[in-house]
Amino acid sequence: MSRIAWIGLGNIGKVLCENLARYGPKSTRVSAWNRTRSAGEELAAQVENIEAVSSLADAVNNSDIICVCLSDDAAVKEVFSEIVSKASAAVSGKLFVDLSTIHPDTASAEAERLHKLGAEYVGSPIFGGVPLAKNRQVTLVLAGPSAAISKFRPFTIGVICGQLISLPDKPCAHAFMLKLLGNFIRFSAIATLAEADAFSEVVGLPPEALEEFVGVVLQGAAVGQLQGLRSGEYHKTDKV
């Protein structure tokens, strides 16, 4: 039986945890923990194979793989500090997979702290928001020991993600560096599309002309980004 803990049930964490329980290997059991306990209890009531646990120590003790999906560096540091202080004896031999969006230095520090206790750490930031997560189409980046990546791989494509960028035996910080670079490229592209869309409106270019150009020449994510700009989607999206 695969025993997995999921720590952090925010907007995207909740969706990924649910997908893990629904679409993971049949024997997968998920222990869900959230600072607000009711979030875990509500999810456990809705999804088979999820059990809400009351403490981080219980989550670690009951699992072989611990997935962490938290909002920022401060939350990650707080959770790992609590794990080390209250469940250090249970950490040895466990695999921690960090799906949070954090600074590369934070990831390196937590990986080193866990390594000293005999645990492994894989950096695994996410590209994509809640809509893609619901359809299991987010992209994960995995960086860390190749054996650890292989251990987590059965829970990735078709389970919680659609695409995987694997960096075996590379420092975990590389995954988060790629996340920073990827976000820079994506946001720069969105800003450029916004300027182009505004310019096309000023000069009287039909909206469908620019959209067709983007679809034919740029393709891919640029099409959805332009549509998102025009629909106001980026103004309505909740923080994930």
Automatic annotation (TrEMBL):
InterPro entries: 6PGDH_NADP-bd, HIBADH-related_NP60_sf, NAD(P)-bd_dom_sf. Residues 3-155 form the 6-phosphogluconate dehydrogenase NADP-binding domain. GO terms for molecular function: NADP binding. SUPFAM superfamilies: NAD(P)-binding Rossmann-fold domains (SSF51735). This is 6-phosphogluconate dehydrogenase NADP-binding domain-containing protein. It comes from Aspergillus calidoustus.
